């Protein structure tokens, strides 16, 4: 008898008292596991997440959370063989499993790296710039994101038992939320195995991740305003969840990734001997056969110009005839089994529905040759290609969640866009064309109906990640029928879990709340030049107010000659006088910035190790010969790097002229040592 999968609740493994639902090996039909959550205390589950997990995760900064995700990715990477062995039993080949297992671990790495690079070492994220709300600069607005105090429930489909869990977990964890993971029963044994490794590692705080093996029971009764559910699965389950009182009455946030009739469109410009023709055919066959077509992003509709439809069908059929179906653990097999016999029955029913308005042009839905496996004991199915009749409805309605696509034809670009839109919103479309005019017309026509559009041609094919691969840095989700949800998309996926709030107040209050110095806040002009302070000694608001320097015509001439920037506004008095903005010779903006550096720098070796750039540089007022400039430089933000002996310091720089008008504003970005020999008695180089 196989093992009854357990749930993980409030720091303990929970085993249901009943026998549970039996899950069969997709390849052999043997029993793999039993699944049940009967008797699971969902109140305790949610309470533990809320009272223990949430506070523990929220106490960590974004960088600390990112560090844990990286550690977790490294840890899971050491157990891949064990995961692959189980993945074969789901019907997945080695290549399919790589998408799921390596893809999931890669998503953890990606979020770990983005969390470190794009989020502050803090628990609050600033959204956009400060908004001035009063003339005197004493009343400002700033949007901030903070962690919600609820739980993130993650309900996944059967097709990606590892990636599905990790791609939802990583952004939620970075956002400071505890997760409750609910895998689909059919492949829950693989998710449970990965989950056990996560728990054993001890990397994530107690209560930050819990597991339900089996049904969710009365879980939704426990959920409300601060909680979210991210659901991936069928449109029919999505509909049930949408109607739940937790969503309808208690403000539970529900994100949905449901079924999707993705399309690939061949441009009108492509002839059969163009490289794009081959790329198109290859792309369609890949998407039909990877994971045996059980991918939410798989190409279901193949939309081609009417005059070459026969050539496309012949080329697709030829390629499909070479796909070896069978035991996924056999390296020569290209396509494994569907997840279950029940799933195969569903796909067969979908094919029957499609055949009401389409002809079968390749494959036999009822029979398939298999290598190394029993075609009837396992959930094997031949790839199936159909050709739609003129005006067919079914291909735009029926999702065959298996290795099945339907060819549809069009005559004009407008018709191609209109046909694709009949899917009522999809996750992804690909456009295969080498003509930029066709590409723009189709892409902009499709964009309102899709979460992602892939353009494929001879120039990007070698590096293209392909139609079917959601990437952690790009959004995954689609409008309308695809569920209307959005996941991933780099830091966007983290912010989905957080609450955006507009904070209004004085500059000092905003500085205190955001941890970032706000223009108008107090500055601390200390005896010690801040360039002589280590990261440990620097404080937000530490400032330098420099002496002033008069900019001369000789300075401008010298800079023009030295750099070769002899633009007329700096060198030709007559032409410069005619310039409507300057009315005479002006200093180069870069000269102003260079002189400013000369004014604020402290030249001796010290804790400031490097200047790695400037942000938001704006030249606001022209500087003319005879103008005197000075600089106010203030520590705006301090971000230690956990993996280095230094951190980043962002300085607010304002260059003023003799009339106290700002001539340039920007942020200076430096790397500063965390510690430095005590040198506080050194005289500051500038007052
Ligand atoms: P499903 O039957 O809707 O199941 C999805 C998940 O919902 C499973 O974990 C399932 O658990 C759970 N579930 C079912 N009824 C529930 C309820 N009343 N309350 C809470 N949870 C419930 O879908 P599926 O057949 O597994 O997946 C195939 C579908 O998913 C396809 O339509 C496909 O297009 C879609 N999909 C979409 C994406 C995407 O990103 N957009 C990705 C993959 C798949 P049990 O398994 O325990 O019933």
UniProtKB/TrEMBL annotation:
Q: Which InterPro entries match?
A: Ald_DH/histidinol_DH, Ald_DH_C, Ald_DH_N, Aldehyde_DH_dom, HotDog_dom_sf, MaoC-like_dom, PaaN-DH
Protein name as annotated: Oxepin-CoA hydrolase/3-oxo-5,6-dehydrosuberyl-CoA semialdehyde dehydrogenase
EC numbers on record: 1.2.1.91, 3.3.2.12
The UniProt record lists the keyword Oxidoreductase? yes
Q: Which Pfam families match?
A: Aldedh (PF00171), MaoC_dehydratas (PF01575)
Keyword Oxidoreductase included in the entry's annotation: yes
SUPFAM superfamilies for the chain: ALDH-like (SSF53720), Thioesterase/thiol ester dehydrase-isomerase (SSF54637)
Q: Enumerate the GO terms in the molecular function aspect.
A: hydrolase activity; oxidoreductase activity
Q: Which residues form the signal peptide?
A: none
Which keywords describe this protein according to UniProt? Hydrolase, Oxidoreductase
Instruction: Name the NCBIfam families on file.
Output: PaaN-DH (TIGR02278), PRK11903.1 (NF008868)
Instruction: Outline the extent of the MaoC-like domain.
Output: 540-642
Family membership, please give it. Belongs to the enoyl-CoA hydratase/isomerase family. Belongs to the aldehyde dehydrogenase family.
Q: Which residues form the Aldehyde dehydrogenase domain?
A: 15-442
């Amino acid at each position: 008898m196989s093992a009854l999968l357990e749930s993980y609740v409030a720091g303990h493994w929970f085993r249901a008292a009943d026998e549970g639902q039996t899950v069969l090996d997709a390849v052999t039909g043997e029993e793999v596991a039993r699944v049940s959550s009967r008797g699971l205390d969902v109140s305790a589950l949610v309470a533990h997440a809320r009272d223990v997990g949430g506070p523990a995760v929220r106490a960590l900064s974004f960088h600390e959370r990112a560090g844990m995700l990286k550690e977790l990715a490294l840890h899971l990477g050491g157990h891949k063989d064990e995961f692959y062995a189980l993945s074969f039993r789901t019907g997945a080949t080695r290549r399919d499993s790589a998408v799921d297992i390596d893809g999931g671990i890669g998503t953890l790495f990606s979020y770990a790296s983005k969390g470190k690079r794009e989020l502050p070492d803090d628990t609050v994220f600033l959204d956009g710039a400060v908004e001035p709300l009063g003339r005197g600069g004493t009343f400002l607005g700033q949007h901030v994101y903070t962690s919600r105090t609820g739980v993130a429930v993650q309900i996944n489909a059967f097709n990606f038992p590892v990636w599905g869990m990790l791609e939802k977990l990583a952004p939620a964890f970075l956002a400071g939320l505890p997760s409750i993971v609910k895998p689909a029963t059919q492949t829950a044994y693989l998710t449970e195995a990965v989950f056990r490794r996560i728990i054993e590692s001890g990397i994530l705080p107690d209560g930050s991740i819990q597991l339900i093996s089996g049904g969710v029971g009365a879980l939704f009764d426990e959920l409300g305003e601060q909680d979210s559910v991210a659901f991936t699965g069928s449109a029919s389950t999505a509909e049930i969840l949408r109607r739940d009182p937790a969503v309808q009455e208690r403000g539970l946030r529900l994100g949905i990734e449901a079924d999707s009739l993705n399309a690939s469109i061949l441009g009108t410009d492509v002839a059969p001997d163009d490289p794009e023709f081959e790329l198109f055919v290859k792309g369609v066959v890949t998407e039909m056969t990877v994971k045996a077509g059980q991918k939410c992003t798989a190409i279901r509709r193949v939309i081609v110009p009417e005059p070459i439809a026969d050539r496309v069908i012949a080329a697709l059929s030829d390629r499909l005839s070479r796909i070896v179906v069978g035991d996924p653990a056999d390296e020569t097999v290209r396509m494994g089994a569907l997840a279950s016999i029940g799933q195969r029955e569903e796909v067969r029913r979908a094919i029957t529905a499609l055949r009401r308005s389409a002809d079968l042009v390749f494959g036999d839905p009822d029979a398939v040759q298999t290598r190394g496996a029993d075609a009837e004991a396992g959930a094997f199915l031949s790839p199936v290609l159909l050709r739609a009749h003129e005006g067919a409805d079914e291909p735009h309605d029926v999702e065959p969640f298996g290795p099945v696509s339907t060819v549809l034809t069009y005559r004009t670009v407008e018709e191609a866009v209109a046909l694709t839109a009949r899917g009522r919103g999809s996750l992804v479309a690909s456009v295969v064309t080498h003509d930029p005019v066709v590409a723009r017309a189709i892409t902009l026509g499709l964009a309102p109906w899709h979460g992602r559009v892939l353009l494929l041609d001879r120039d990007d094919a070698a590096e293209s990640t392909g139609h079917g691969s959601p990437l952690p840095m790009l959004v995954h989700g689609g409008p309308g029928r695809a569920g209307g949800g959005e996941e991933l998309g780099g830091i966007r996926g983290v912010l989905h879990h957080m609450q955006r709030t507009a904070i209004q107040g004085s500059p000092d209050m905003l500085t205190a709340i955001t941890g970032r110095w706000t223009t108008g806040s107090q500055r601390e002009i200390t005896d010690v030049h801040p360039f002589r302070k280590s990261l440990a000694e620097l404080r937000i608001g530490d400032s330098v107010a420099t002496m002033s320097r008069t900019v001369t015509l000789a300075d401008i001439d010298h800079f023009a000659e030295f750099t070769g920037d002899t633009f007329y506004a700096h060198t030709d008095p007559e032409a410069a006088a005619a310039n409507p903005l300057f009315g005479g010779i002006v200093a180069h903006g870069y000269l102003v910035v260079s002189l400013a550096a000369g004014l604020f720098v402290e030249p001796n070796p010290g804790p400031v190790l490097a200047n790695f750039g400037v942000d938001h540089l704006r030249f606001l007022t022209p500087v003319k010969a005879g103008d005197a400039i000075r600089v106010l430089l203030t520590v705006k933000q301090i971000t230690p790097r956990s993996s280095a002996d230094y951190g980043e310091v962002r300085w607010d720089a304002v260059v003023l002229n003799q009339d106290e008008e700002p001539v340039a504003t920007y942020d200076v970005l430096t790397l500063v040592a965390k510690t430095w020999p005590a040198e506080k008695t050194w005289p500051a180089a500038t007052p």
